[in-house]
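PROTEIN DESIGN WORKSHEET
SECTION A - STRUCTURE
LENGTH: 286
TOKENS:
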């Protein structure tokens, strides 16, 4: 293997954005299948991951997000990258609903099925909830919150708790506790929590508050709605900013297409739901 090829192989093993662009296939909002090139929201998350890895050697991140910014796609890709390129890794993804669990696992299977042969690990078996890489002794498994034993009895290296704010309230705390206890407090482990907001109570809110206060060891990552370049609507010829919109445009550097997107969403769902699902600042979401 020549020197240049060795450098490329090393970069593929260590540099997730480089690996993602070369090896991971995603289905876009328009239905196309293309390589995963990090969008602005995903780049913000990647920068937070890099900073924490550099300072602590592990990842403990909680993400408060707007809808459909590709952050579950990023985390799923990051977990697949780690378990498919390293020995003795075990990742678990837990979502709030069976349909979401199935969708995230289908996304991971797409990563695996389209991975270039030179990077694709040998698969012992693949079921509806697990990919097992026997030569690496690594695996990727999914589950749905609401049961009584999620994570208990497991030793996990990577966890993705998706839409934690919407986990079943009666079991969310027990599920979360069992899950995080399954991850050793060592280097090269990762826990990602991501969710849109859902009120000012519950595990996600408490975790977010603790992260902001710096008391629980998690790094808070907030990504406002206008980070997404697709959150725009065509502007009619008679468009005029309201005084409130003028202030928002100046404060966040919003253009008219972004303001039109905001106006349409508010007209459809109301201002409170817009703030929850498309916050400009973290405090708006709650």
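SECTION B - SEQUENCE
RESIDUE ASSIGNMENT:
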């Amino acid at each position: 293997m020549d020197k240049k090829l060795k450098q490329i192989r090393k970069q593929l093993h260590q540099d997730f954005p480089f690996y993602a662009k070369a090896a991971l296939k995603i289905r876009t909002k328009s239905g196309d299948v293309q390589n995963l090139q990090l969008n602005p929201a995903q780049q913000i998350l990647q920068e937070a991951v890099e900073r924490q890895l550099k300072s602590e050697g592990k990842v403990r991140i909680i993400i408060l997000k707007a809808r459909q910014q590709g952050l579950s796609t990023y985390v799923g890709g990051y977990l697949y990258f780690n378990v498919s390129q390293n020995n003795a890794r075990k990742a678990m993804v837990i979502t709030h609903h069976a349909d979401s669990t199935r969708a995230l696992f289908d996304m991971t299977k797409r990563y695996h099925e389209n991975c270039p042969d030179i990077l694709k690990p040998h698969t012992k078996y693949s079921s509806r909830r697990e990919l097992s890489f026997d030569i690496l002794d690594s695996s990727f498994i999914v589950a749905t919150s609401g049961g009584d034993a999620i994570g208990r009895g497991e030793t996990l290296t990577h966890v993705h708790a998706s839409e934690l704010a919407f986990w079943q309230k009666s079991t969310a705390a027990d599920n979360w506790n069992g899950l995080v206890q399954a991850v050793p407090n060592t280097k090269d482990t990762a826990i990602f929590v991501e969710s849109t907001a859902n009120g000012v109570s519950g595990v996600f809110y408490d975790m977010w508050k603790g992260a902001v206060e710096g008391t629980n060891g998690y790094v808070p990552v907030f990504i406002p709605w206008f980070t997404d370049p697709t959150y725009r609507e065509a502007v009619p010829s008679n468009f005029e900013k309201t005084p409130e919109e003028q202030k928002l445009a100046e404060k966040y550097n919003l253009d008219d297409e972004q303001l039109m997107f905001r106006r349409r969403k508010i007209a459809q769902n109301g201002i409170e739901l817009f703030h929850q699902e498309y916050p400009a600042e973290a405090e708006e979401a709650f």
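SECTION C - NOTES
Strands lie at 25-27, 33-35, 59-65, 90-95, 125-126, 130-133, 138-144, 158-162, 190-195, 219-223.
The mean pLDDT is 91.
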